[in-house]
Design brief:
The chain is an alpha+beta fold and about 150 residues long. The chain is about 35% helix and about 25% strand. It has helices at about 10-20, 25, 35-45, 75-80, 100-115, 130-135, and strands at about 1-5, 50-55, 65-75, 80-90, 120. A 5-stranded mixed beta sheet has the order 1-2-3-4-5, sandwiched between helices.
């Protein structure tokens, strides 16, 4: 598998993958042409050195097979430590269940180590019990109760 930073040319493929997810279908607006707000968001993410929007390709050049978003958060606690936040991990619908997700997470964890992060964290929608079990198998522990306020 080939991991690389996403380019603007990847945005439509990324949104197509996200929109094929059971919850993504409810949240995203995948169409051709893609709404401009996705490109604006990409420009903001891409211009911020604390963010890495990653795409995954296979060696057979069949296009993008997955995506994830890493954010490195500098903060004052833990002696001025850095935490890595993994979000928006999605795999192309026809390739799910083949071990790609595990490889993507191992890559992301190693990337966090390269950036000297002392912790890797993620959030998962409670409507995704299979995903939560998957994260636990990778060694993630439920340590906090997350809360959101949609605006």
């Amino acid at each position: 598998m080939i991991f690389r930073k996403a380019t603007v040319n990847d945005v439509a493929a990324i949104i197509k993958i996200i929109a094929s997810d059971e919850l993504g279908k409810l949240r995203e607006d995948f169409q051709d042409p893609l709404p401009n707000n996705y490109y604006k968001a990409f420009d903001i993410i891409n211009s911020d050195s604390s963010n890495e929007l990653i795409v995954v390709e296979d060696e057979n050049n069949t296009g993008i097979i997955g995506t994830l978003h890493l954010t490195f958060i500098q903060y004052l606690t833990y002696k001025g430590g850095v935490r890595a936040q993994i979000e928006n991990v999605f795999i192309r619908e026809d390739l799910r269940g083949q071990g790609i997700g595990k490889k993507m997470f191992l890559w992301a964890i190693n990337r966090a180590k390269e950036k000297n992060a002392h912790i890797v964290q993620l959030t998962s929608d409670k409507q995704r019990p299979k995903a939560i079990k998957f994260y636990e198998k990778l060694g993630f522990k439920p340590s906090h109760e997350g809360m959101k306020l949609h605006l």
